[in-house]
Specification:
Elements lengths: L5 H48 L6 H5 L7 H5 L5 H6 L2 H5 L6 H21 L11 H41 L5 H6 L2 H23 L2 H14 L2 H10 L1 H11 L6 H4 L5 H8 L14 H13 L1 E4 L7 H14 L4 E6 L1 H14 L4 E3 L5 H11 L1 E6 L16 E5 L10 H12 L3 E4 L8 H11 L1 H6 L9 H7 L4 E2 L3 H4 L6 E8 L3 H12 L3 H6 L10 H15 L3 E6 L2 H11 L3 E5 L5 H13 L5 E5 H4 L8 E6 L6 H9 L10 E8 L3 H20 L14 H15 L6
Parallel strand pairs: 1-6, 1-7, 2-4, 2-5, 3-4, 5-6, 8-13, 9-11, 9-12, 10-11, 12-13
């Protein structure tokens, strides 16, 4: 047995004391951090409510009170708002001539009643305002809470055991560090102390060797040394994570029925009874996301139709992670080429699941590895022909992203997808817009999954009402909307920027009408001319204002030549273009460059290339160069920026020209968009019943109307 000298004992006890202090501080912070968030939240929320009440006249108290109240003396004394009455104590109110104890109590009670009503109705958001000390306190508290949670997720079991052990062993071994105690301790106590010190050294060495001590020191530095500016930068980069953590600690007033897709009670009960193993996830789920993953597991063959920006990918990963934790090995994702790289990034970032890319230069090697070792295989629709379902491992879950790509059952990619769907244990179709025109298209998707449900869907059912339709497809379809479940989303401000044709663009427009060229009519406002056209001038003005306000911009157009014109106009401010001919990996690289740019930049993209699958939340200004033929295309593009994690108000500027195809298009599509919003608005099928005007017919109608308006129709 080792005999410990006094010097060695003191040195070891000092090391143990340092590690014990770090560990104790971390344990204390684990207990304190959640309450610190709750307090900061309550203070910030109360301030928001009081700010609203500061705008409410005091005579509102008379309207709410159940007993008669004379407000004249109170207002004459300077109490003009409900907030001022609420903040006054009883003595201050009773000092007002004509106000006694009973009236003072009624005033305060009624003001509190109004406070409670406003509080109940308040939608709380963390405003991106580093100058607001209350918002800063809340963001700091959430930052500390997340850092502590991250540490204890990794080291919690070790710290819970070893920190108390350090204290116990140090107490026993301490007599070896003091001369007097060493002299009078006796042989047995000395031996016990030596044994304790030896075990103490093993514990200290174990903490150091396993990097726990380093992690404790890093946590301490983070909690004490992170500046407000650094915290705000982290919040801006990971706002969704912050708000998820807040939602786990406080009641944010989420509409539970909305988060459950307004499904029938018996379906909800089945979903809630499903366990969800998140041990292989590296991200916290929102409540509605956990519900979506459970729904996919319980119903087995389903469509997740959540509105864009709600994290459908994370829900699919959660379902796969649950199955993997239960021993399943093979998973397959079929998706458009534009989102394949994003899928690989998301799986790697949010889970411990292995990613296998089953396409590209090493397609065959990726397939062999997936077959042998399992993991999440990712394959695009065009590459699916190289991955036959026959003879391959049976996927525990097949995920089909942008599933409306297979709404035509006779298409080759649809037939290949159907073959895989027929072999998989579970199937999850994902699309925010499962169909854009008719119920028949939705039936075709359901037919892949549950033919018996598809057969029961009446093609006219959409017209019978959303509630009835929702119930009929409740075992196969789940949809939630942003406004119902993402209460933290900043405001979306949409502005129609109306311009007039000038000499050159007006002439180009008339030529396009004469040619009956719908496409040329739509892009005439960006025609090459000796001077910038009206739309181009306005685009430049919007970009300049955004740059002055430190906002990043994304510009969308359907047309490649419009994109080229915008790029030439913006010069070094522009990043891009993202077009249909740009490989998916390069598209993501351009988005990453845009996101990382220290200075405001403008990402320029074709709307159907960048408007799907990419996360462009670094942009808070969206410019649409022309209205789109389908409302859903615009909605998807806007949702690239106005999505979970966005912290700034999103401005959407639609560039339009009076008395042109733009105006005609908006008039015709207005009813279609309203029908879409009405029918999809309560978490139903995203479908526009009755709005089945084909694109070609729409174009022909607008061209003829414009020819007639300009007096240039053929006799």
């Amino acid at each position: 047995m080792e005999n410990w000298s006094r010097a060695a004992s003191r040195d070891l006890l000092g090391q143990a004391r340092t590690r014990h202090t770090l560990g104790t501080d971390a344990l204390t912070e684990r207990d304190a951090a959640p309450e610190r968030v709750r307090v900061a939240y309550r203070v910030a929320r109360d301030a928001r409510v009081r700010a609203e009440l500061a705008e409410v006249p005091a005579d509102r108290i008379r309207d709410v009170s159940t007993a008669p109240l004379r407000l004249g003396p109170v207002e004459a004394a300077g109490y003009r708002t409900v907030a001022q009455v609420l903040d006054a104590d009883a003595a201050e109110l009773e000092a007002i001539p004509g106000v006694g104890p009973r009236t003072a109590r009624l005033l305060r009670d009624t003001a509190q009643q109004i406070f409670d009503a406003v509080d109940d109705a308040l939608t709380f958001r963390i405003e991106h305002d580093p100058g607001d000390p209350l918002a800063t306190d809340l963001v700091r508290a959430l930052h500390a809470h997340e850092q502590v949670n991250r540490f204890f997720d990794a080291w919690g079991e070790r710290v819970d055991v070893d920190v108390p052990k350090l204290a116990r062993l140090a107490e026993v071994g301490a007599l070896r560090a003091t001369l007097v105690k060493r002299l009078f301790a006796g042989r047995e106590r000395t031996a016990t102390a030596d044994t304790a010190l030896t075990r103490l050294r093993e514990t200290v060495d174990g903490l150091d060797a396993s990097a726990v001590t380093e992690a404790l020191e890093r946590l301490d530095r983070t909690l004490t040394g992170t500046s407000d500016a650094e915290v705000w930068r982290d919040y801006e980069a990971r706002a969704a994570t912050y708000f998820t953590a807040l939602g786990e600690l406080v009641d944010l007033g989420i509409d539970v029925e909305a988060s459950e897709g307004y499904l029938p009670e018996e379906v909800v009960d089945q979903v809630l009874a499903q366990d969800l193993d998140t041990s292989l996830l590296t991200v916290s789920l929102r409540g509605y996301q956990a519900f979506g993953a459970r729904y996919a597991l319980v119903q087995r063959r389903t469509i997740l139709g959540d509105e864009m920006g709600l994290g459908k990918t994370v829900q699919a990963i959660a379902a796969m992670a649950h199955l993997a934790a239960r021993g399943r090995r093979h998973f397959l994702v079929i998706c458009p080429a534009s989102v394949a790289a994003n899928w690989a990034r998301e799986v790697a970032a949010h889970s411990h699941l292995a990613v296998r890319v089953l396409q590209g230069d090493d397609r065959d090697g990726g397939i062999r590895t997936w077959v042998a070792d399992g993991g999440v295989g990712i394959v695009t629709f065009p590459q699916l022909g190289h991955l036959r379902a026959a003879g391959m491992p049976r996927p525990a879950l097949l995920v089909v992203d942008e599933a409306h790509y297979v709404k035509n059952p006779r298409a080759q990619r649809s037939e290949r997808t159907a073959a895989w769907a027929g072999t998989a244990e579970r199937v999850l179709f994902m699309t925010g817009t499962p169909m854009e025109n008719t119920v028949d298209e939705f039936r075709s998707l359901v037919d892949y999954l549950k033919p018996e449900v598809a057969e029961s869907i009446d093609p006219a059912a959409g017209l019978a009402g959303a509630a009835a339709f929702r119930r009929s497809v409740s075992t196969v379809y789940l949809r939630r909307n942003q406004e119902d479940v993402l209460t933290e989303l900043p405001e979306l401000v949409q502005v129609d920027e109306w311009e007039r044709f000038g000499k050159h663009d007006g002439a180009a427009y008339r030529r396009a009408v004469l040619k009956r060229s719908f496409a040329d009519m739509r892009r005439a406002a960006f025609v090459h001319a000796p001077e910038p056209t009206a739309k181009l001038v306005r685009l430049r003005e919007i970009v300049a204002e955004a740059m002055d306000n430190n906002r990043k911009v994304v510009v969308f157009s359907f047309f490649r030549d419009v994109i080229e014109t915008v790029l030439a106009e913006l010069g070094p401010l522009a990043i891009g273009p993202i077009t249909g001919s740009v490989p998916a990996r390069r598209r993501q690289e351009l988005v990453d460059e845009f996101t990382r740019a220290a200075e405001p930049k403008v990402l320029v993209s074709q709307i159907e290339a960048g408007g799907v699958g990419l996360n462009i939340q670094a942009a808070s200004v969206v410019i649409l160069c022309e209205p789109q033929v389908k409302p859903t295309v615009e909605a998807q593009a806007i949702a690239r920026a106005h999505r979970m994690g966005q912290v700034r108000t999103v401005q959407v500027h639609r560039l339009l020209v009076e008395n042109s195809v733009d105006e005609r298009l908006l008039e015709i599509l207005g009813t279609k968009a309203e029908l879409f919003a009405e029918y999809a608005g309560r978490s139903t099928v995203a479908v526009t019943p009755g709005a089945d005007v084909a694109d070609a017919e729409l174009a022909r109608r607008i061209v003829e109307e414009e020819r007639a308006r300009l007096g240039e129709s053929a006799a």
